Amino acid sequence: MRRRFAACWGAEFERDGVPVCSVLYSYPDRLTVRAVEDLAWELGLSRATTYRLIARYRGARTVEALCERQRGWPRGKLRDEPVRDALIQQFLEREYLKPTRPPLRRVVAHIATACRQQGIPAPTWRTVKTRLERIDERVRADRRGETSLVRARVARPGAYEVSRPLQVVQVDHTQVDVMIVDQAFREAAGRPWITLAIDVMTRMVTGFHLGIEAPSRTAIGLCLLHAVYDKTAWLAERGIDAPWPIGGLPE
Questions:
Q1: Is 191 helix (H, G, I), strand (E, B) or coil?
Q2: In 3D, which of 195, 184, 187 has the Cα closest to residue 224?
Q3: Which terminus of the chain has a lower count of CB atoms within 10 Å, N or C?
Q4: Which domain, by its residues, includes 122?
Q5: In the 8-state DSSP scheme, what is residue 122?
């Protein structure tokens, strides 16, 4: 965690003194005036600024709340410019979304020319691209005649037929929405990966493997090993009083 603070505010966190995290954890409800003054001295900030940092940390409960905030217009937020937005939308509908598939840079140039003629600032290509991305991807692909993209976005009728359990077992990986942190300093170690083996007929999970490493043949092998064996002993070791009635080699 000290390294995370140092990355946010500078090398002073690596020098002598009590780290910021220890001061905040020592006073979970209310800091004393002396503690705030010591913390302000440690950071090289005024007492008022230190109070604001404490309030930000306690409001978010994350280290990132103490990082310097980026100045300027927030990323992804569109400015309210109705005249120019209407002009951009008009050119996208009339020139970009058609089967001839003109390049975006040509449309951006035409939009810039039209804006200058009306005496308004010309948008950048990023602005035009942001407006374009607000149009549904399937609509864009259909209007531009991108058949391969349209086919990839349309569900096809049919089913994968199986007649018995363990006839077909499918394996898939996904990253878990959990962040692993260091037990001592609360430094982020990353999000773990879970590998699941699922029986197609019963839709039952036959086994899994959880690890910090990215998906690999090793993860698949450990997942299948867990899927093959009986789960009774595994559940008993973890004090889980629930059945998991599946195991065996898939066909």
A1: coil
A2: 195
A3: C
A4: 82-153
A5: P
Strand ranges across the sheet with 205-211: 169-175, 193-199, 205-211
Q: What is the distance between the alpha carbons of residues 222 and 215, in angstroms, rounded to a whole number?
A: 11
Number of domains in the chain: 3
In-domain check, residue 161: no
pLDDT digits (tens, 9 = 90+) for 26-49: 666 667 778 778 777 777 778 887
Based on the domain organization, do 221 and 190 belong to the same domain? Answer: yes
Q: How many CB atoms lie within 10 A of CB 92?
A: 20
Burial 172-200 (b: 16+ CB within 10 A, else e): eeeeeeeeeeeeeeeeeeeeebbbbbbbb
What is the distance between the alpha carbons of residues 35 and 17, in angstroms, rounded to a whole number? 12
**Confidence class of residue 21 from pLDDT cuts 50, 70 and 90?**
low
pTM of the shown model:
0.41
Which residue, 208, 215, 212, 209, is CA-closest to 178?
Answer: 212
> Any idea which residue has 């170690």 for tokens?
189
- Residue 220 and residue 171 in contact, taking contact as beta carbons nearer than 8 Å: yes
Q: For position 168, what pLDDT does the model report? A: 92
Q: Given 39, 66, 93, which residue is the final one in a domain?
A: 66
